[in-house]
Write a structure and sequence with these properties.
Blueprint lengths: L1 H5 L1 H14 L5 H31 L4 H8 L2 H16 L3 H16 L5 H13 L2 H12 L7 H6 L1 H4 L10 H19 L3 E4 L22 E4 L1 H9 L7
Length: 235
């Protein structure tokens, strides 16, 4: 029974391979992905996460780290980070996880609940949303990292839609706007609205039906997340 339990993931892969193998055309490719590519990639991602975490824990007393790693709450955080690492599509995402997890392990002033909550929030946003969030901190100090804006120009400066925009441009603008709205829903960004004089009609966002924001700013929670994933340098 113990052997069956330990190998249940392997049996699940075999069953999945058999099921998708019967699908015409894509069946063989899908079976190969399920049997080799996905498991190997997920293991590799977790290994890379551990390597990044090891670097961040390297300067600490080894016995202290071992003691912390035995604590149930730290084990729970590591399990959460493994689940996210298995789905990570970029090395940057693994770096965010390693920074957040290292802080939760090494800093006694940071509670388990705080790290748990921030891990959950990080798992809800994609890499583009992380970049958009970070841009609102970097915009206050653009001289510190001008390369940041060059690297992420496509994500941070999409073409504004207009009456002559193509369908593709309208689609891209709608997706970009949804990223910001998602960050607002998670209380990581807060919108600022222009003042409206008496008799004036405010401008509305056609995508949301709400009054159009003039700008967005980081919330305290947004700043906290950026600090913990090492995306916000000290002011």
């Amino acid at each position: 029974m113990d052997e069956l339990k330990s190998n249940k993931a392997d049996y699940a892969v075999l069953i999945a391979k058999g099921a998708v193998g019967a699908i015409p055309y894509l069946g063989g490719i899908a079976a190969e992905i399920i049997g080799t590519l996905i498991p190997n990639q997920r293991i590799d991602r977790i290994v890379r996460l551990l390597e990044k975490l090891d670097v961040r824990l390297d300067d600490l007393e080894s016995e202290r780290v071992r003691d912390k790693l035995r604590q149930p709450d730290v084990i729970d955080l590591i399990e959460d980070s493994f689940h996210q690492a298995a789905r990570a599509l970029s090395d940057e995402r693994l770096a965010y996880l390693a920074a957040l997890l290292a802080g939760g392990i090494t800093d006694d002033a940071i509670s388990y609940e705080e790290t748990k909550r921030l891990l959950g929030i990080l798992g809800e946003i994609n890499d583009v949303e992380v970049i958009i969030l970070a841009s609102h901190h970097t915009s206050r100090h653009p001289q510190r990292d001008p390369a940041f804006w060059q690297r992420h120009e496509a994500a941070l400066a999409p073409r504004a839609p207009h009456s002559g925009s193509s369908e593709k441009e309208m689609d891209e603008a709608a997706i970009h706007n949804s990223y910001k709205q998602h960050l607002v829903q998670l209380q990581l960004l807060t919108p600022s609205f222009p003042s409206v004089r008496r008799g004036e009609v405010p401008e509305f966002d056609h995508a949301t039906g709400m009054m159009k924001a003039s700008s967005y700013g980081l919330t305290w929670l947004g700043r906290l997340l950026l600090r913990r994933i090492a995306m916000a340098p000290a002011d």
